[in-house]
């Protein structure tokens, strides 16, 4: 259930995170386009790919907790079933959370 205050707080957080990420992405990208000459698109692609991979790896630990609450799944039959399933397919399950 979203209240009006929660909506505005969440929207401001999204705007702030978007501004930070966009600034970090676009500033070097503009420099690469100016510097890159005829092959600027290769450098721009490589930088964009590396940046996307960086965001992919930090998202769950740093960005997502700004918007949602993550709590470890308590010891229960559900947790045991999930861990057993992960083990049966050799999935390296290291963290198991409930998102609130």
Description:
This protein is mainly alpha-helical and 100 residues long. Helices cover 68% and strands 6% of the residues. Strands 1-2 form a two-stranded antiparallel sheet. The protein is flat. The model has no long low-confidence stretch (mean pLDDT 94).
Task: Please give a handful of descriptors for the protein shown.
100 residues, mainly alpha, two-stranded antiparallel sheet, 3 helices, 68% helix
Write the layout of secondary structure elements.
Blueprint: H1 4-35, H2 40-63, E1 70-72, H3 77-88, E2 97-99
Antiparallel strand pairs: 1-2
How much helix is in the residues? 55-70%
Kindly, what is the distance between the CA atoms of the first and last residues, rounded to a whole number of angstroms? 11 Å
Strand/helix succession: HHEHE
Structural class: mainly alpha
Strand elements, count: 2
What would the average pLDDT be, to the nearest integer? 94
Major sheet: order of its strands? 1-2
Shape estimate: flat
Oligomer: single chain
Strand residue percentage? 5-15%
Number of helices: 3
How many whole angstroms does the radius of gyration measure?
20 Å
Uncertain ranges: none
Give the biggest sheet: 2 strands, antiparallel
